[in-house]
Amino acid sequence: MSLHLFATPVECTQCGTVVDDPKLDRCPKCGALLTERRTPGRLAGVERRYSNLRFLLGFLRFLGVITILVGVLIFVSSMGNDRTSYAQGLGALLGTVVAAVAMFSVAAFFELAIDVEENTRASFRVQQQLLELTHAGAHPSAVEPVHPPQPVVAVPLAAPPAEVQPTLATEPS
């Protein structure tokens, strides 16, 4: 049995029953396994940020696909053309593939950075909610009392000895 952190209603995929109890793994009506259809960030209630950047990343991927299509088009058109050689068409195709892979890589890197930030916020929020549940559910007698700090007492150091005369080592004569 797994315990979901947040009571989100789950609909059974077999019979359509909506189950509100977060402690149930199986549908009480048909016994089918219930699956959660929300990502961890959504479970923690973390809002999605950077919608404009996500749009630009989608546009960058679209440009990557268009770049590959243009490269294939150049390669195919160079095969039937007498002015360009097969090697030039192949070079154009490889160049566009490298440019498209670079676009996809940049988009994936930025998406990874966004996901790391979102997952960090989600895990922090889950930790805070678990701490709130722990403190709210603790019995007052189970919590150790906090004692105020004891005052610091100054202990006098031993009085320094009266003037000490330095002795010089003398050589025997």
Instruction: Name the shape in a single word.
Output: flat
Largest sheet: 2 strands, antiparallel
Sequence of strands across the biggest β-sheet: 1-2
Global Rg: 36 Å
Count of helical regions = 3
The CA-CA distance between the termini, in Å, is 96 Å
What letter string, H or E per element, gives the SSE order? EEHHH
Mean pLDDT, rounded to whole units? 77
- Structural class by secondary-structure content: mainly alpha
User: Which bin fits the share of residues in helices?
Assistant: 40-55%
Low-confidence stretches: 1-5
Beta-strand portion reads: under 5%
- Please count the beta strands (DSSP E, at least 2 residues each): 2
Distinctive features:
flat, 173 residues, 3 helices, 2 strands, mainly alpha
How would you characterize the overall build of this protein?
- It is a single chain.
- Among the domains are: 1-37; 51-134.
- The protein has three helices and two strands, in the order ββααα.
- Helix 2 packs antiparallel against helix 3.
- It is mainly alpha-helical.
Tell me briefly what this model is.
The protein is mostly helical. It has 3 helices and 2 strands, in the order ββααα. Among the domains are: 1-37; 51-134.
Question: Helices and strands in order, then pairings?
Answer:
Layout: E1 10-11, E2 18-19, H1 40-43, H2 51-79, H3 86-137
Antiparallel strand pairs: 1-2
